[in-house]
Design a protein that fits this description.
With 466 residues, this protein is an alpha/beta fold. 33% of the residues lie in helices and 19% in strands. The two termini are 33 Å apart. Residues 56-172 form the Gfo/Idh/MocA-like oxidoreductase N-terminal domain. Residues 212-463 form the Gfo/Idh/MocA-like oxidoreductase bacterial type C-terminal domain.
Length: 466
Amino acid sequence: MNQTQTKLASSATRQRLSSRRRFLKQTAIATTVACVPYHLTASRARAESKSSRPQFALIGVGGNGTRTAPVGKEFADLVALCDVDSGHLEAGNQLLCDGKADLYSDYREILARDDIDLVQISTPDHWHAKILIEAMLAGKDAYCEKPLTLTIDEGKLVRQVQKQTGRVVQVGTQQRSSFDKFNKALAIIADGRIGKLKRMVVGIDSGGWSPEIPVMDVPGELDWDRWLGPTPEMPYRYLANPKKGNGYTNGHTHFRWWYEHSGGKLTDWGAHHFDIAMLGIAAAGQNNDPVSVDGTATHDVEFKGGMPLQADRYNTARAFDLNVAFADGDVVMNIRNDVDNGILFEGDQGRFFVNRGKLVGKPVEDLVTKPLPDDAISKIYRGMPMKQNDRHAHWENLMYAIDKRVLPISDVHSHMKMLNVAHLAGICCRLGRKVNWDQSTETVVGDELAASMMKRPYRAGYEIEM
């Protein structure tokens, strides 16, 4: 295969996919449970016979894709790759599949294949919800990188479609699958070792910085229009950086620092650490429904009405000191960029700190003489078997959930409750004022402009195909 073998969607395939989606949608509407058995695809035959491994496709062959897909290959056969950058496709094919994968530049061709059971979605953030929704409607299970959505309203639609179709979706918040750190931390809280939870300090580091970035010609291997997809049309920008080989750009690797494509650190590290912090509130038996986000943030560009006024440099928040209030008025989550990356849990009887490298504090030291109950971790995992750590355990849990047709450890519903906090924090930063939230209606209250930022228009031709 060479670069020209990248398969573009034909009109016949488009018609077949459209017809199949209509059928699946009609079937899905009648489905009211969270998870249902496989139906009407080659997946069913494989699931029933257990005679062969499932097949999966990787959509988005960049850094996260090439780091996570090799773990997926332990459980399923990687047969197809999709990317809008032909250079990524060729390199990924050699790295992951010895040059033998089917290559695509349009993910819809993958979704049209009945022989593909699940997809791994590792695109930039602004593509996640659209591809995931269409994948579920096409009868695919999925592993989708965090953050699951670009907006709050996208999350509502993702959850609705998951319930309708019963597809299994594992969000890539793999800290939920880290036995020796984060889930032990949650077990410590659940066992009452720090008493009533009062405060959490969540460190997520400072956001990206850039100088002014000039408009440049789009690299020949990149389909820039398709890379932008649902987000507003804009010129490609790039500036070489002698200290970093990938330079400054509004494209590959640096998309996180543009509100058009992501939410900065709040939806990057925040999607990991807010998740554990809010699970900690629940583990303590307290109400983790968010009610407001308030505080201060620093951007490198000026904003008006929540929109950046400068288009040639990174525009997400660089620094922040935010407080999230919850329905349990006794607990608050403080989000900062100027403390250690990780989570400090403080209760009325003790405190401890956890991140990917350490779990420290007196409640942790006390485990030597007073260990946790034997079933403490199992309860955190809802009784599901977990053997490894991080990405391996996350994929293993996904395959267990697919086999049993149950919600995985990082399901879309609990993920979106946490991610909504990250989105609300971003709205707070952009407007520079407190944002109030009604969890019962999942709506911003008392602020029309802030409420309007729960959604964004899709660029013509890139709307979600329902």
